[in-house]
Amino acid sequence: MRNIEIPLVRNRDHVYRFFEMVPGLLSWSTLALPIVLSLISPTLAAYFIIAFLLLWFVKMLGLNVRMYQGYKQLNEAMAYDWPKMLRELDNPEWAFEHYEQGVSPDWHRQNLIANHIKEADRLRQKDIFHAVIIAVSIESSEVVEPTIKSILNCNYDMNRIILILAFEERCGAQQEVMVNALVEEYGHHFYHMEAIKHPGDIPDEMIGKGANLAFAGPKIKTYLESKNIPFDHTIVTTLDADNRPHPQYFAAVTYAFIACPDPLHTSFQPITIYTNNIWDVPAPMRVIAAGNSFWNIVLSLRPHMLRNFSAHSQSMQTLVDTDFWSVRTIVEDGHQYWRTYFTYNGKHEVQSIMVPVYLDAVLSSTLRGTIKGQYKQIRRWAFGASDIPYVLQKGWREKNNVPKGDLLMKTGRLFESHWSWATAPLLLLLGAFVPLYFAANSRLSLVANQLPVMASRIQALAMIGLFSSMYLTIRLLPPKPIRYKNRYWLYMLIQWIYLPFTTIVFNSFAALESQTRLIFGWYLGKFDITEKAVKKPKESQALQK
Fold this sequence. Notes:
Layout: H1 14-40, H2 42-79, H3 82-90, H4 92-98, H5 106-118, E1 129-136, H6 141-152, E2 161-168, H7 173-186, E3 192-198, H8 209-226, E4 234-240, E5 244-245, H9 249-259, E6 266-273, H10 283-299, E7 312-315, H11 316-321, H12 332-343, E8 349-358, H13 367-382, H14 387-397, H15 404-430, H16 433-438, H17 446-476, H18 488-494, H19 499-520
Parallel strand pairs: 1-2, 1-4, 2-3, 6-8
Antiparallel strand pairs: 4-7, 5-8
């Protein structure tokens, strides 16, 4: 099998190291460009900033349209009777006789027609098993147990679910006692439940979730073999300890898997929504959580941009073919897309499942710890820029059969996403003042002197997007805990004053740090675990203001 693993640091040659430097060099060059252009001509720099602002204004309008479309489809998907549609998919001949026009979506009828044609090769719900891996690190039972309960609350047959608690040896004996107690308490509800301990002394592994999952994968493979359960009939879903699937999730992903023309070469991605503890976290973290949720909703409608993120599902056969997950990266979810892409020579796509998995927003026991944890979490996500040298190496430097046109487009999107992440907030909020500084007291650069005014008007128009976010944030909120007074609804609106701060510090700065680390080889050597504190009803509510 072709080697698709990330090269060890000691084995990276000068070309690979240069590839690692490219994202940071591109981002820092872009940020320096307004200064360089201003030294040459403030007017030229002003035109550059205006073009950049207009480009992002148009882009934001499109993102807002997608956000509303995605929100609408999300609500529709949660309301569908997925178990009923699964039964119809199992027996399309019967479904055609009882089909009610307008009750089920049109795409369901198309899937019934396609499944009717398959006949003998048709997959049925009874053929499918789910292997669900919950990655556990330092989380307490107060975090892990609600996740197990959320799976039990799903509208699905638990006798088709194999639940694995993958935990870390390095986290101590207390964690082992905790996960084994959960297996003892809840194991009888599932077809099988097991705790798998990931040793802490395996050489050449990055400390993190990827290595934990990669160790559990072969154990699950062996179990499936012992039960004669086919790999290509098993859907593997990975969850963090705080990931709580919507009650319809397993029915929806089963439907998508059966209806998919080529599930071997497809990953299935739910919409991750950060609302589990949204009422308990400080206001800046609520803004970040809302932004992340909306971005995931937007991506669900942009299949060409979709990548594996956090909770996701794949066929066990796909995982076997890709040798499971990478053990050398802290961004194993997004990187899994590229492992699969190169394993199958570009024949791989991510299909959106318009049903949510709910996650925790960042919350530590202190405000300082929460802010620090939030920054580290986004810095870890932004370290996905390390996929750029990997793609350049595997796609463009090593021999492969990936279609080069498709690879070129995907490489370009990968560059653009990390470049925008690092540069756009700073240029949008501060870029207009750079030409003005160099054009001070100069009547020869009227455009540069008027640039802040023009920028403020463009930004004022862009406030439409902010109001959209505020409205949808309220719509996405879970019920308010009774321990909070009604005035907390007001805080959900006032919190958006933090948006400029959170955008620059927790997006641009975090991305720039990650990319700068790649320039100098200061790698993030381990997975920075995000603390998942649980706020008790009687605790002080000082953090909420």
